[in-house]
Design goal:
This protein is α/β, with parallel strands linked by helices. It contains 19 helices and 16 strands. The protein is elongated and about 125 Å long.
């Protein structure tokens, strides 16, 4: 649920927005609140019925009236019925609150996950994945405690204090003044001690996210840590983070732990004062014994909710910190998409006339509405043109400088150059992971910014150097490229990628379960599945970013022969360090510091005897 962004550190506004999630269940929430109030009021009323019982016995002892079992029975029955109703109300609201809490947590997690899907790639490049995970786990757990424990306790405490105060004031306004003084002292104590505790609980929540991010990062990179013998360094770095977490937790708990004894002893002091003063009033005939017997436990009934509520302050502060971190995700600016050109199924006759089709035809066209109200269709072919494109991930740090290139349908364009030369950036711009501030990129003659991002990306497939496989079967991972692909299409794609042989020898073949990002496969096998995933999508544009870097030379040659069929009629961008991968490319772009310094076929570049020639002869190496 989106809401107005709240100022950082504004606890009340954060909690107010958090409570907005209960609005969807306002009738259920109102019922729960009513039951909490009823339970609190009934408990106080049950306690107030001690007075007539004690006064009745006192009058019998004094001989003012005869003892009657029926009278006593009726008083005790009334008291028992009151407490029974209170117990039923308490049990009912507890069960309903758990159900409400579960629904709210589900909605929060849904909103976070949906929001993450709408965020640009840049967001994930600049945020620790472990910290993001912490918001789904630790931070939502603090909100669960807030809704299931703190919120009901606060409503109950407030109701109890008000009800007790009213009953006490009606019974004896003079003794009630002592209770008011006790409440004032306790509230000042809560503010002084609880406020300091809350500050450290907020810091603790932030440190947990930081620690989780560090742990996840170094678990994933454990092999690198061991290869370079950096165990001690990583332990020292983690110790710094963990010490910060420990310090915040210790200080938070220190203040939290001393609060209860202070409040408890304060309550005992006033309890003794009320007992002493009440005794004096009874001796002097200014109060009945029943009044004092009722007053003393009700004094405890006032102090207990305040003490209980003070305990919830820490949970509330943690919940506010957790909610703030969650709202930071929900308030993040989603990926902008002002495109209006769509990709549609098309029927194309022999004269080249294009009509839109509701059925899958195997051919595609760009549906292009114009400002004058006309509508045109253009066949999807995969022609890509860069015109004077400049780009930087950060301001004042350009990665590409006035890059111009074109790729005709069916051409294979190879990008070579040192790390950081801008090769991957070009592919990131083709699929609009990032938008171009200067220059233009045209796709089939259409400005790429006019094409809807989802439609643009459906017309392409990428195979990255760092493959990612999902938990599920081999079949499901290949089908990720085309969700409605048949089993036959999946097998055919695997054969094109030369993955069918090793898949067939897995324990359950295509139904083998992959876990932990395909940890039960070799790096080369994982890469083959990624290529098969792109093959089953069968788009007009392929982007291969070091796609064969993890495969041995022999397997690479076999894959290239298999993929030659896949590449027919398609525009292919290949990023590679191995020159053997790019020799057959229609055009090779040699990049250096964001600029194309050489371009041509393998033979043409060899004849120029420039940078590419030196690479081919082993006189120069890519970083």
């Amino acid at each position: 649920m989106k809401g107005a962004p709240v100022p950082k550190g504004n606890v009340l506004k954060v909690l107010g927005r958090l409570l907005g999630y209960a609005k969807a269940y306002k009738f259920l929430f109102a019922l729960i609140a009513a039951l909490i109030v009823a339970s609190s009021v009934l408990n106080v009323l049950g306690m107030s019925q001690l007075r007539p019982v004690v006064d009745y016995f006192d009058s019998v002892i004094k001989g003012a009236q005869n003892f009657d079992y029926a009278v006593l029975y009726n008083m005790l029955l009334k008291m028992g019925a009151t407490y029974l109703c209170a117990a039923i109300a308490s049990y009912t609201y507890s069960r309903l609150m758990l159900a409400l809490c579960s629904r709210i947590m589900k909605n929060l997690r849904d909103d976070m996950f949906i929001t993450l899907q709408s965020l640009p790639v840049k967001y994930f490049d600049t945020h620790s994945h472990g910290d993001l995970m912490s918001r789904f786990t630790n931070d939502t757990d603090t909100l669960r405690e807030f809704f299931s424990q703190s919120l009901p306790q606060l409503i109950s405490s407030f109701t109890s204090v008000i009800t007790v105060f009213v009953v006490l004031f009606i019974s004896s306004w003079s003794l009630t003044l002592l209770v008011v003084l006790m409440i004032a002292v306790m509230l000042v104590t809560v503010k002084a001690v609880g406020g300091r505790s809350g500050k450290y609980f907020v810091k603790r929540q932030s440190d947990i996210g930081r620690a989780n991010g560090y742990i996840e990062e170094y678990i994933e990179g454990q092999k690198v840590v061991k290869v370079f013998c950096r165990e001690e360094t990583t332990k020292r770095n983690f110790d710094v983070i963990n010490e910060s977490l420990n310090s915040a937790t210790s200080k938070a708990n220190a203040y939290a732990n001393i609060l209860m004894p202070i409040l408890g002893n304060t309550a005992y002091i006033f309890y003794a004062l009320i007992a002493a003063i009440g005794g004096i009033l009874v001796i002097n005939g200014l109060a009945t014994k029943g009044l004092i017997v009722m007053f003393l436990p009700m004094t405890r009934q006032v102090s207990m909710p305040i003490s209980s509520a003070s305990q919830q302050v820490n949970i509330i502060m943690m919940a506010a910190a957790g909610a703030e971190r969650i709202f930071e995700i929900l308030d993040s600016k989603p990926e902008e998409d002002n495109g209006y050109v769509q990709l549609v199924n098309a029927d194309i006759d022999e004269q080249g006339n294009i009509t839109e089709s509701d059925a899958r035809t195997g051919r595609w066209a760009w549906k292009h509405p114009h400002h004058d109200g006309t509508l045109t269709y253009k066949e999807l072919k995969g022609e890509v043109t860069f015109v004077d494109v400049s780009f930087g991930y950060e301001e004042n740090n350009q990665v590409l400088k006035d890059v111009s290139l074109y790729a005709k349908p069916g051409q294979q364009i190879a990008l070579v150059g040192a790390t950081g030369a801008g090769k991957t950036t070009i592919t990131n711009l083709i699929n609009r992971f990032y938008d171009v501030p200067d220059g233009k990129i045209r796709y089939d003659g259409i400005n790429i910014n006019k094409i809807k991002k989802a439609d643009l990306r459906r017309s392409q497939a990428m195979v990255l150097q760092d493959t990612h496989l999902f938990n599920g079967t081999v079949k499901d991972n290949i089908r990720f490229g085309k969700l409605d692909a048949t089993d036959e299409e999946i097998v055919q794609a695997a054969k094109i990628a030369n993955a069918d042989f090793f898949i067939s020898h897995l324990p359950q073949g295509y139904d083998t379960i992959l876990t932990a990002d395909g940890a039960n496969l070799s790096q080369g096998q994982r890469q083959l599945l990624a290529i098969a995933r792109a093959a089953v999508a069968n788009p007009p544009v392929l982007i291969l970013d070091e796609a064969t870097s993890s495969i041995d030379t022999r397997t690479e040659a076999i894959i290239e022969r298999g993929m030659s069929e896949l590449m027919k009629g398609k525009t292919v961008f290949v990023i590679a360090h191995r020159l053997s991968t790019v020799r057959k490319a229609d055009a090779i772009m040699v990049m250096d510091h964001g600029e194309i310094i050489e371009r041509g076929t393998h033979e043409q570049l060899i004849e120029q005897k420039g940078t590419y020639y030196k690479l081919a002869q082993g006189l120069y190496e890519l970083d």
